Amino acid sequence: MIIGILTDWVRRSNKAERLWLLAKIEFKLRYYENKLGLLWALIKPLMDIAIYYIVFQTIMKQNVPAFASYLFIGLILWNFFVESTTGTVQILNTKKYLYEYSNMNKLEIYVSTLLSNTIGLFFNFIMFLIFYNFIERGTAFSTIHTLWILPLFINLYILSLASSLILSNIYVIAKDITQVWQVFCSFLFFLSPIFYKLDIFKARLPKFDYLNPIAGIIINARKATMEGTAPDFGLFVWDLGYAVILLLLGIFLLNKLGSKAAEKL
Question: Which residue of 40, 65, 118, 223 sits 20 to 30 Å from the alpha carbon of 6, by its own alpha carbon?
């Protein structure tokens, strides 16, 4: 069943062009109708950085080197995951017209929506590199190891896509999954090393970076972009394994529950 869905999707023509077109439309609808446009994609993490910087660096004295950049990279990765999952819980309902009145595969709708989020993430990541390398004082420049962000992002994208598939298909039979997921995201946020010093995080929650794939991705992203080292490969493989297993589960649910979405929603 799962192989059938993937094979059907791969065989369709003009996939990349159609996905990119849908992603651009989604992105423009999200930002270009606002007066500040694309700046909104940057304003949110900057506001979050200001709040957490005051709380954890000024008041609680975390004493993390380059703490603003430390927050910046953690928050943009976290925001991508949250926006990609919470924004797609009702996607089978809000975008029903796409799979009912066209030959579009449901999987393409998810992929294009996450691609639109990727555009915003790319913009934020460029801002992070500029801030870390040229604005924040007392920090080293990024190295060739920064390119490790590409496989780490692929890991994050697969994890986000998998979570989106699972949540949106559960929504078909249990609409209160939206509230449950919001609470779970708040719980997971404070159990991720977004603003905690890494050695404190590992000391208080030993091995939790292997149980929380978002934590592992953020840790490895900082290694690649700020420490100038290769990621922890054991942690990377573990996180990728989580993502692939959840993706297979999501596609299975799409085949079982998603086929009935039009009549139940």
Answer: 118
Return the SS3 of 224. Answer: helix
Consecutive 10-residue averages of pLDDT for the chain (265 residues): 52 67 73 62 73 70 80 92 92 78 78 89 88 76 89 97 94 91 92 87 87 94 92 95 96 84 61
- Spell out the long-range contacts of 33-40 with Cβ–Cβ below 8 A and sequence spacing 24 or more: 38/120, 38/123
Q: How far apart are CA 125 and CA 229, in angstroms?
A: 18
Contact between 224 and 230 under an 8 Å Cβ cutoff? The reply is: yes
CA distance 158 to 247: 7
Max CA pair span of the chain? 59
Closest to 81 (Cα-Cα) out of 235, 216, 238: 216
Q: How far is Cα 150 from Cα 159, in angstroms, rounded to an integer?
A: 14
- Quick one: tokens of 241? 């394994």
